[in-house]
Write a structure and sequence with these properties.
72 residues, mainly alpha, 50% helix, elongated
Length: 72
């Protein structure tokens, strides 16, 4: 037998509103993380490399091909 929930009379589902001032720091944080990941996966090789060696390249090698970045 199916069970159902009944809302009290007069109650309406209210969606909480998040103020922009509280949302901006999280958006900036997410943007920085996405840019860092994009750099590490897509552009960390050759003259733009921050880290020496090829450890990061080998670690994200399959991800590069999956995302369409050429690497050899």
């Amino acid at each position: 037998m199916a069970q159902g929930a009944v809302l009290p009379a007069g109650s309406v589902g209210v969606v909480p509103v998040v103020p922009i001032k509280e949302l901006v720091p999280w958006a900036v944080f997410a943007g920085v993380i996405l840019l860092a990941l994009l750099y590490l996966v897509g552009m960390d090789q050759g003259s733009t490399s921050v880290f020496s060696g090829s450890m990061i390249h080998e670690f994200v090698h399959d991800g590069r091909h999956l995302l369409g970045f050429p690497c050899h």
